[in-house]
């Protein structure tokens, strides 16, 4: 039975209030590189003076002071010679750290001429085989050190005859494999340069984020042992699902094949792994998650401060993730933030401008999921124009369903059960490539309650944990000013449910 609280009057009263604009809240601009530059972006960062540093996959690091006109960036070469640099941090002007295939490198401009003249290896404490898929990502640890993400190797390319470091024949098995040390791990580099394994079970962690509360997040890519595109809250010692990496875990028996072990016993596999905080449906939302980034909390980029954006490395989309803690573990919702709007394919790296108003997005394709051409590489800038689109600002789980907070006052359609279509599903990661949604159920919305002019709670019949809920809002659900919602799909990963309120 539909429930409507006394707050209904707030919705009706709000109908007289002006609405916020929807179109063009965020503008996407193309940033020009010199025509001779292969602009395959592997890292983006700003220094404290506002200078932009861009690591390119083919070895160079370029700098430019951002210009209002995106065609007027004056690019200069800062450093060169890196092997597939896929992460960059700039602790101070003229000093950078780049995570490249063989090592973590510091490059410094010691004489102030704008060009690095000193290069220093910080660590090379992982194996190297030459397989192209052994990608890296980089994030600061907040204590003078770093986190580095190491990908498993792809079955589409070999392990070279000569490898660096110990080789595992067991680790060489499977589709994506870990034949050399620490492939499929997040590594921790301490401030003194020593390196230690931090967490295992990753397939291709093509992006790390340490948020403003000190949490470490890693994206991963759908494929073998990853049924969809996950975002993980990374903690030391945990296993995140791809078994190949376990051959380098000293607690794992040396003669035991982790792939065969978990293929024969999925119940034990599910018990041993840490689930994703957010499972992002493949194709419907993203195809390949890349570098997560936290939106500034001061309102510089709109109303979504503190939330995480996750670009699609093989699509013209950026997802927005709304996270919360339930019983001490993070989980949350995913929706689209940008869908097209001139955004290129292959969105690989992101960084906010120092003022927080613009998001810089770097692209590189390498042939995946996109036709060759100018739409697959380069850099773009997404700037907030000040308008606020009508959408769900926050989505929180309750014991009976969800609480939705809109960006502005909602119209009376928000109180109609017909405004919400809900289905739920599960995902089972295993040895096959990806995975279809399983146990898909259409769910019944049994009640809608207004909390205030911007917030409703919806109750769902037989609401239960360990499921992904797809909430699709009807076109009739508009703001009090009549604005329609352009991006109306929301996916919440309900690993846990909170206890009922007393």
What's the quick description here?
The protein is mostly beta strands.
Oligomeric status: single chain
What is the approximate shape? globular
- Rounded to the nearest angstrom, the radius of gyration is 23 Å
Low-confidence parts: 1-23
Annotated CATH homologous superfamily of the largest domain: TolB, C-terminal domain
In the CATH scheme, the class of the largest domain would be Mainly Beta
Itemize the secondary structure elements and their pairings.
Blueprint: H1 8-14, E1 26-31, E2 41-46, E3 52-56, E4 61-64, E5 76-79, E6 88-92, E7 95-99, E8 104-108, E9 118-123, E10 136-140, E11 146-150, E12 185-189, E13 195-200, E14 208-210, E15 216-219, E16 229-234, H2 258-264, H3 266-272, E17 278-280, E18 293-294, E19 308-311, E20 317-326, E21 329-339, E22 347-352, E23 358-363, E24 378-384, E25 392-397, E26 401-406, E27 420-426, E28 438-443, E29 445-452, E30 455-460, E31 467-473, E32 489-494
Antiparallel strand pairs: 1-24, 2-3, 3-4, 4-5, 6-7, 7-8, 8-9, 10-11, 11-12, 12-13, 14-15, 15-16, 16-17, 18-19, 19-20, 20-21, 21-32, 22-23, 23-24, 25-26, 26-30, 27-28, 27-31, 29-30, 31-32
Task: Give a verbal description of the structure.
This protein has helices at 8-14, 258-264, 266-272; strands at residues 26-31, 41-46, 52-56, 61-64, 76-79, 88-92, 95-99, 104-108, 118-123, 136-140, 146-150, 185-189, 195-200, 208-210, 216-219, 229-234, 278-280, 293-294, 308-311, 317-326, 329-339, 347-352, 358-363, 378-384, 392-397, 401-406, 420-426, 438-443, 445-452, 455-460, 467-473, 489-494. The chain has 502 residues and is mainly β. The strands form seven sheets. It has an eight-stranded antiparallel sheet, with no helix packed on it. The model is unreliable at 1-23 (pLDDT under 50). It is globular. It has two domains: 8-20 and 389-494, Sandwich (Immunoglobulin-like), CATH 2.60.40.1220; 37-311, TolB, C-terminal domain (Neuraminidase, 6 Propeller), CATH 2.120.10. A hairpin with a 3-residue loop joins strand 25 (392-397) and strand 26.
